[in-house]
Design a protein that fits this description.
The two termini are 49 Å apart. By secondary structure, this protein is mainly alpha-helical. It has 6 helices and no strands. Pfam families: ACR_tran.
């Protein structure tokens, strides 16, 4: 279920890319939906396959983990990869057919949704895209400075990653604690019971506000 939640974005992203590129070609070049779809797939087909290969390289190895880790993540990995492969197949087979069949022809320079909210959204998006391009151009003119900043940030991330404690499963506060007492070899059962009673009395006397109950258990080590 968790893998399906994460895969929702993968299931629609590839199809959205195909539809948007087809509409862009129709608007910029005035081609029919069929011609624009054919040209669009020639442009982005390699990118779709590349995305699928990259994601597979990330998640497929998780299916071959051994032990408890593999048992937990195997189904997760298989679900993600299967959803991603189906998404790419739909984007390369079904979506182009739907674009060529259902999209309405556009005149050169025309866009769908030129009025109301869509017009405002497209305007704001194009404005922000231009700002982003200008910002990237400025960074490229001072590439050495930004490379140094990137290396420093990367070094800081590595330092913090090495310093932070890690564990396979995080410890949880279950509202209980354990006290273990081991008597010397040769101690009798009566001596053990006496010590256990002293510990129980201590908790009920000095820690009565912090505990609700005390459970005592006796066991014997096989080696003495």
């Amino acid at each position: 279920m968790f893998a399906m939640v994460l895969a929702i974005g993968l299931l629609v992203d590839d199809a959205i890319v195909v539809v948007e590129n087809v509409e862009r070609i129709m608007s910029e070049e005035g081609l029919t939906p069929r011609e624009a779809t054919r040209k669009s797939m020639g442009q982005i087909q390699g990118a779709l396959v590349g995305i699928a290969m990259v994601l597979s390289a990330v998640f497929v190895p998780m299916a071959f983990f051994g032990g408890t880790t593999g048992a937990i993540y195997r189904q997760f990995s298989i679900t993600i990869v299967a959803a991603m492969v189906l998404s790419v197949l739909v984007a390369m087979i079904l979506t182009p057919a739907l674009c060529a069949t259902l999209l309405k022809p556009l005149k050169k320079g025309e866009h769908h949704g030129q009025k109301g909210f869509f017009a405002w959204f497209n305007q704001m998006f194009n404005r922000n895209a231009e700002r982003y391009e200008k910002g990237v151009a400025k960074i490229l003119h001072r590439s050495l400075r930004w490379i140094v900043i990137y290396v420093l940030l990367l070094g800081g991330m590595v330092f913090l990653f090495l310093r932070l404690p890690t564990s396979f499963l995080p410890l949880e506060d279950r509202g209980m604690f354990t006290t273990s007492v081991q008597l010397p070899s040769g101690s009798t059962q009566q001596q053990t019971l006496k010590v256990v009673e002293q510990i129980e009395k201590y908790y009920f006397t000095h820690e009565k506000d912090n505990i609700m109950s005390v459970f005592c258990h006796r066991w014997f080590w096989p080696w003495g």
